[in-house]
Amino acid sequence: QVQLVQSGGGLVQAGGSLRLSCAASGRTFSRYAMGWFRQAPGKEREFVAAITWSGGSTYYADSVKGRFTISRKTARNTVYLQMNSLKPEDTAVYYCAYKEASGSYYYGRAYDYWGQGTQVTVSS
Question: What is the CB neighbour count within 10 angstroms for residue 74?
C-alpha cells in the first residue's frame, strides 16, 4: 500500500500563486510516476500534470502549460505543483495520484493510489 498526503492549497486572487505538495510513503514502486488531477463542481475529474521518477519527464494539460510546474524531490518521495498566474477557472479540488511508471499518465484510471484532495479557490 502507498499512502499519499497532500498539503497546500487555499484561497488566492486571480493572478496569484499557490504550491501543492504530495508526499508518498509505504510500499512504493521502484519505478513510478505521480500526477495531479482536479475536479471542479459539476465537472469530471481532469488531468493537470504528471512527472516520472526515472527520468524526470513531465506532462501537462494544455490549460495549464506555461503556468503550472510539476517537480519532485526523489529523496523525499514528494511531488510539488507550483501554480502561477492562477485563474478563476482553476478553482477545483486537486488530487495527487501515484502509479507504476508504465502506461498512460493522462487518465485517472491508470493510477493506483490517490491523495485526500485539497481545495484551491481562485477569486476574480
Answer: 10
First to last CA, the chain: 40
- Which amino acid is located at 115 in the chain? G
124 close to 14: Cβ distance less than 8 angstroms: yes
Local confidence band at 74 (pLDDT 50, 70, 90 cut-offs): confident
pLDDT, position 73: 85
Lowest mean pLDDT among 40-49, 64-73, 78-87, 96-105: 96-105
The whole-angstrom separation of Cα 107 and Cα 72 is 20
Using CA of residue 95, residue 101, residue 105, residue 108, what is the dihedral sign? Answer: negative
Report the phi/psi class of residue 116: left, alpha or beta, with left for phi > 0 and alpha for psi in -120 to 50.
alpha
